[in-house]
């Protein structure tokens, strides 16, 4: 049932291709800027960058529709930008400022947007997986044909709660896509050192959940696989697993010296498999864009990212009284709806 064969690649227009280039580059430049601000001491605590994995979220968001939901781990800035959250609000949250999505009180791992159906940002490895199934349960109950993307890593894929969730999601035919972002490492542990069965897309076989392995450095392959998975979920056929093979170029977090892998390994991925460079080449060789067109996109992105850093520096720190707010819900959701 599980398949390694990728879905057929979709035909995309030049404009769509340019959009994917734009969206992936925005994530990369944003993350580079976040890395700089961290180095300057403007971002504190943990900060996990998404550089190298951009095609995963951009490909899946290209397949998603308005109203679909997403939930992920701590490596979450790319997911936020890809679903349309405001770079100013994300950067200001990273720097702990009032203008941030959680008013500066959540930081890198704890941001949410009801408007964009982004449900976090979770620091506990794997905790977002049952939450994703819960979101899908609500959609099934409301019969609204929405789909939830529950993203997690190759390390998280070995957790018990993932399999409890698979069981329930399959039993109740929940419209949830389990997206395993297999970047081949869980902190400093290579997948082959920690995982007995490396083919993660087959992990749902015992529950009858179909799975597929996808090249996560190829945005079009990710989009095609996403469309297939979404069609399956929207048709009411239950959950789907996508194992997306990807790679993170930076350390696990900003404090990781990454001594567990060679410089050559990283260099090889950057030079031969970079997802942004691949789309850049497609645009140029297909004559869909000129060097100047791409330079204009690069310039726009630089402006957006610089503006987000400026916004973050200018936004004040949260007032002391904010320590006492947003701890408990003021009104229970049932009462709110009544
Ligand atoms: C329950 C729990 N155990 C351990 C940790 C510490 N920890 C944080 S990230 C991580 C590795 C997870 O790796 P993976 O799922 O592959 O995601 P990636 O970081 O590669 O995106 C670990 C062990 C944690 N946050 N939560
Ligand atoms: Mg990993």
TrEMBL record:
InterPro entries annotated for this entry?
DH_E1, PDH_E1_Alpha_Subunit, Pyrv_DH_E1_asu_subgrp-y, THDP-binding
GO MF terms here are: pyruvate dehydrogenase (acetyl-transferring) activity
Q: Does Oxidoreductase appear among the keywords?
A: yes
Q: Which CDD domains match?
A: TPP_E1_PDC_ADC_BCADC
**Which Pfam families does the record match to this protein?**
E1_dh (PF00676)
- The protein's Enzyme Commission number: 1.2.4.1
- Does Oxidoreductase appear among the keywords? yes
The signal sequence is none
Q: Which domain of life is it from?
A: Bacteria
Give the cofactors, semicolon-separated: thiamine diphosphate
According to its UniProt entry, one GO biological process term is: pyruvate decarboxylation to acetyl-CoA
Residue ranges annotated for the Dehydrogenase E1 component domain, each copy included: 23-320
Sorted keywords for this record are: Oxidoreductase, Pyruvate, Thiamine pyrophosphate
Catalytic activity, reaction form: N(6)-[(R)-lipoyl]-L-lysyl-[protein] + pyruvate + H(+) = N(6)-[(R)-S(8)-acetyldihydrolipoyl]-L-lysyl-[protein] + CO2
Function recorded in the entry = The pyruvate dehydrogenase complex catalyzes the overall conversion of pyruvate to acetyl-CoA and CO(2). It contains multiple copies of three enzymatic components: pyruvate dehydrogenase (E1), dihydrolipoamide acetyltransferase (E2) and lipoamide dehydrogenase (E3).
Give the multimer and partner information: Heterodimer of an alpha and a beta chain.
Identification of the protein by name: Pyruvate dehydrogenase E1 component subunit alpha
Native organism is: Pseudooceanicola albus
